[in-house]
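Batch manifest, entry 17 of 40.
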Amino acid sequence: MQTVRLESLRLKPGAWVLDLGCGAGRHLHALYYSTRTNGVGVDLGFEDVVRTRQGFEAAPDMDAGSGRWFGLSVADARTLPFADERFDAIICSEVLEHIHDYKIVLGECLRLLKPGGQLAISVPRFFPEWLCWKLAPGYHQTPGGHVQIFKDVELRKVIEDQGFLFMRRHWAHGLHSPYWWLQCLVWPTRDSNWLVAQYRRFLEWDILKQPRLTRWMAAAADPLMGKSVVLYFVKAAR
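Output type: structure tokens
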């Protein structure tokens, strides 16, 4: 399941890309298997980095000289262990909502990007996220849960104030919002609820098969109730 559209980044062969907060590696895996780029995945959780590594068991090669390579690291997004202007692009998907002082992370992104480098940020969209918070307080009170709700216009302004130029925006995962609302409605029993389980099976089937009908449904649902909003920026060239 990809949130950021890699084609929107227009990555050149051999580009260096940081997947900041890589989680289980969905964007890093997509970079490796569908482009000829050098990807670096970073996450605060060691278990997530291990899961990401497992997704590379079928990796066709590991040669930085060929323009296809990956690396993994455990690190805090507020103090990243990389040199200035190291990356051509940074993907930061579903990360900022977990961090109180998220502006420090944006500052690190500015530091690490080359002039003209691209930044793709995704966060939960305001209304679907707000509704989840209202339906189930436990949704955002779990350890490591969400601590921010963003309005995309306000977040865009904050990122522009850091020194980025806004490029484009889209929404994603419109079919996923009802799944989370359903979970929140039955929050104490969500793990055993039959309807939740069936909806999850539907979403997994959709991700794997991508039938034309659900692609049309998603295209219609994303602008109306997309679970995520994705913002693309570029670091101004000197």
